[in-house]
Amino acid sequence: MSPVGAWDIAGPQQVRGEILAIRRVGDYHVVSFTAPGIPSRTLPGQFVAVSVGGPTGATILRRCFSIHSVDPQGSAGGTVEVVLQAKGTGTRWLVDRRRGDPLDVVGPLGRPFSLPKEPVNCLVVGGGYGAAPLFMLADRLRERGCRVDLVLGAATESRLFGVLDGRRRASSVTVATDDGSVGIQGTVIDGMVPILAEFDSRVVYACGPMGMLAAVAGLASDKGIPSQCAVEETMACGIGVCMSCVIPVVGDDGVTRMTRSCTEGPVFFGDRVRWADVGTIPADCLGAPTEKKSGPSSPGRGRSGRR
Ligand SMILES: Cc1cc2nc3c(=O)[nH]c(=O)nc-3n(C[C@H](O)[C@H](O)[C@H](O)COP(=O)(O)OP(=O)(O)OC[C@H]3O[C@@H](n4cnc5c(N)ncnc54)[C@H](O)[C@@H]3O)c2cc1C
Ligand code: FES
Prior knowledge:
The structure is a single chain. The protein is of the alpha/beta class. The protein folds into three domains: 13-109, Elongation Factor Tu (Ef-tu), domain 3 (Beta Barrel); 115-230, Rossmann fold; 233-286, no CATH class. It has five helices and 16 strands. It has a seven-stranded antiparallel beta sheet. The longest helix has 13 residues, at 210-222. It is globular, with a radius of gyration of 20 Å. 44% of the residues are buried. The site of FE2/S2 (inorganic) cluster has 12 residues, from loops.
């Protein structure tokens, strides 16, 4: 098993907050808002689900965002920051808000990263805005006496997030871009390999796109190092009800189950996620649909099956 400890996780709350500021950072927007009670309960890797579109809007589903930073002593019961890539209806609506606009927020949601029980060298890897939740994590790791090496990757310079911030918080920061516009030309994997060799990292933490997480988890497994990956699977409810966010995860008993990334995740041990099967229900997964026998009375099974 991995050398990690458990948190005392507080339940989520639905609160009414207010936009404080929105600032542009490269291709992203950092949105600060008040969220009474949420900051003091937040642990690294958790997320918020934000109602978008306003009371008369047609966007029913909340949008989920990793919590980048919190200030429990901030105004109106504490403040939260998230980092957004404005890409669709909900994120565009959010970045168009103004100071003082109301915001309906549920959080903190999901299971956070676990921390090592002993001070060990940790490698923390972020892709694009996926780096957002890793700075809180880096602070907690350093408070425990861990060395933190950070690898940040993105397609191009404007899609990197937190390089300067990282330099203040980590022992080393390695930057990798696909186009070589800054740092080494390549992926986070190219950045990880020399660090794993030089600093004998004992735990790998990662957040970013699924393809990156699969590669990071694969490298960590090859080196015999436990990894924890925060996934970003499409979520409709964010609170464990709808099953839209399930991914195939292998349990302690060796059995694969379609597992909710909003409640059992978003942080998973990298060697437990069946990365190549994400987006499918593997045939050997518990409750996987079985082939229908011909005949009108054959019982069919839904996407999640019976458990
Ligand atoms: C745990 C978690 C953490 C996330 N953290 C961040 C973050 O820090 N910054 C950030 O910019 N984005 C983050 N996302 C992705 C973000 O939720 C989506 O980009 C956002 O919901 C898109 O909404 P939209 O209305 O702008 O886009 P639309 O494409 O119009 O959204 C339509 C629907 O699809 C869902 N959806 C679309 N893309 C995604 C996606 N990539 N992941 C999950 N759901 C999606 C939305 O929930 C929505 O219901 C996170 C997602 C999850 C699940
Ligand atoms: S998003 Fe609904 S169960 Fe996970």
